[in-house]
Amino acid sequence: MNEITLQCADTPDAPVKNFLATLEPMASTTDATEEDLPFEITLDRYTRDSWSLLKSTNDKVWKSCWFKSIDDKRRLPGFLQFLKSRKKAAFGKFESPLPDETTGEINTAIFLVPFEQPSLMDRGDGEKRDCIFVKYCLDERKAIIASAPVVMTSSKHAVDLQHKQHTNQGHTHIVNNAASSSSASVVGIKVGRGGLLGNLLGATHRTNQHLDTVRSQKKNKASNIVDTGAVTWNQVVNSFRQKIEKQLIDFGQSTLNEMKILINLADMTRDITSLEEKANVTMKVLEFIVFESVEEINEEWTPYKQPSEFMDECTIVVYKEGHVPAEVQDDLNRGEIPDEVRQEQRAVREAMSREEKKRLKIIQEDNLKKTAGQTVDVSVLNTEKRDRRTIEEIQKDLIHKQKRSRQE
Fold first, then answer.
1. Region class of 298: left (phi > 0), else alpha (psi between -120 and 50), else beta
2. In this model, does residue 57 exceed pLDDT 60?
3. 18-42 exposure pattern, b = at least 16 Cβ within 10 A, e = fewer
4. Are 7 and 40 within 8 A, CB to CB?
């Protein structure tokens, strides 16, 4: 049997599926064949029905198998603890490789993870956490019908049979009355139980009988689901994480030495209608997801955030080992200065500015003292100015001077 990628979702046909584990069958405990299970299975349904128990009454239609997780995510123990705490079994559906024996149509198979996991005695504690016991049935109808109560099925069949017999008897009685009434109407004799009403009742019962024999069509469950187009912030974040992990895996398999990841916050939150949901998706959260994904994929890679002019856009460059530029390495080694160091540097700068002001003040005072003790030649300016008085003003001034001289 090949490896299986196991995913989980909240509801059937959910737009976002979360990676759970990559499983490899344990050859010592499996009784399954190689063509039974597909390469990818999604657990999107949960139940507490009797057929989902570890030891159910219909074990003959089920096949069991032990799998071991071979990935580095370590999400399998938490998922099993989640099922055990809620006492629910998780299951998913896939197309069965065995078609129906009578109609030839493709059956629906069930892949079940019971919340009660049997113990592995020959395994250590570390290996037990990475192991999971599953059951699967290649025909969904056999798994569910075999667990249904037999008494209820037989009683229902008896009631349906009795109802059909009663309907047939009533139909025969009314048809006879209708025939007698029609024959009586030809000769002009009225019958009390026949007439138009008898014909109408007979036609009604015949219609009901034909409807009982017609099979009812299955309702399309997908048509009842209303797709509003709105998504939540959890779905956006999970989708972004899966996209980044896929890009990093492809980058690791390529020969490139660096990769640029562009983050646009407006594009990420365009499908979110609620303002509260949008507030949960921030640039810090998306940057943290990128740095965390890089560390999980390969610890030797170096992510670097380039400077940006916009608050809702940024570019993160991922370098492989040994291909980091010198200026980027210097910027990363410089790091971010703590607040305490910033306060100390600010205090040192303020003290140096105060000392510089004191020194300049002392120098100015010394210069003033030196200039006060020296003789300085002073010249009067603007003495030879042009006389802009009129002739009358000049004559008046002369007369005024002459009177002052006489008085003296």
1. beta
2. yes
3. bbbbbbbbbeebeebeeebbeeebb
4. yes
Evaluate whether 58 touches 146 at the Cβ level (below 8 Å). Answer: yes
| CA nearest neighbour of 65 among 119, 28, 19 | 28
CA distance 289 to 338: 24
- Chain-centroid distance, C-alpha 205: 55
Output phi, psi for 40, to 5 deg.
Answer: -140, 130
Q: In Å, how far are 1, 39, 162, 377 from 30, measured between CA atoms?
A: 9, 17, 48, 116
Sheet strands (E) in 100-130: 106-113
- CA–CA gap between residue 22 and residue 174 (Å, rounded): 68
Alpha-helical regions (H) of 14-75:
none
Burial 49-60 (b: 16+ CB within 10 A, else e): eebbbeebebee
**Tokens representing 173?**
């009685």
Pairing of β 40-43 and β 4-8: parallel
- Close Cβ partners of 94 (under 8 Å, ≥ 6 residues apart): 37, 38, 41, 108, 109, 111
CA–CA distance, 76 with 71 (Å, rounded to integer): 10
Determine contact, residues 316/263, Cβ cutoff 8 Å.
Answer: yes
Bridging pattern class, strands 18-25 and 313-319: unpaired
Q: Is the pLDDT of residue 319 over 90?
A: yes
The dihedrals phi and psi of 14, each to the nearest 5 degrees, come to -70, 145
The string of pLDDT tens digits covering residues 219-262 is: 444 444 444 556 888 888 899 999 999 999 999 888 899 999 99
Lowest mean pLDDT among 17-21, 23-27, 195-199, 231-235: 195-199
Beta-carbon-side half-sphere exposure of residue 233 (alpha carbons within 13 Å): 12
Q: Which helix (H) or strand (E) holds 161?
A: helix 150-186
The length of the chain in residues reads 408
Token code pair at residue 107:
């059956």
